[in-house]
Amino acid sequence: MCCFVAPVAVATITTVVKKKIPAKYHVEWLLLMLWGGNVMLIVDHIINGEVVPYFPFFTKSWSEMWPEILSVGMPMTIAIFAIWGAAVLGSNLAIKRNLKVV
Fold first, then answer.
1. Which is more confidently placed, 68 or 60?
2. Does 80 or 96 have the greater pLDDT score?
3. Alpha helices of the chain — where are they, by DSSP H?
4. Nearest of 70, 78, 87 to residue 10 by alpha carbon
5. How do residues 3-36 score in pLDDT, each as one tens digit?
6. Is 52's pLDDT higher than 90?
7. Which range has highest mean pLDDT (47-51, 80-84, 96-100)?
8. Is cis: bond before 7, omega within 30 of 0?
9. Those residues with Cβ within 8 angstroms of residue 66's Cβ, 6 or more apart along the chain or in another chain
10. Do residues 53 and 26 lie in contact, with contact meaning Cβ atoms separated by under 8 Å?
11. Is the sign of the CA dihedral 22, 4, 36, 55 positive or negative?
12. Residues sharing a CB contact under 8 Å with residue 100, sequence separation 6 or more, in sequence order
């Protein structure tokens, strides 16, 4: 119901500091992954009635949401960072070896 809270927080922070991150880290890839996934999750939760367009927005209390944020949201965010890191590593290795990067 609120698994998107952790990736939204990370996406927001990353968007704010993106100009301080060197270009070789392709932060735009990370932002696309984070914001794209968040939009899909939010739409899914709205369709399922777990998020509503009026305050307090969530249909559960914070005490019920924290376990989901920690058990689902954080692992999703870590997985996104791992995939992004592998993509950046592969891209930078290919550039060092003079391979064509798409």
1. 68
2. 80
3. 5-17, 27-47, 62-68, 74-96
4. 78
5. 889 999 999 999 999 999 999 999 999 999 999 9
6. no
7. 80-84
8. no
9. none
10. no
11. negative
12. 94
Domain coordinates of the chain in residue numbers?
A: 5-96
Neighbours of 73 (CB within 10 A): 22
User: For position 99, what pLDDT does the model report?
Assistant: 66
Burial of 28 (0-12, 13-18, 19+ CB in 10 A): exposed
Residue of 46, 43, 35 whose CA lies nearest to 13: 35
Residue with the bigger pLDDT between 28 and 102: it is 28
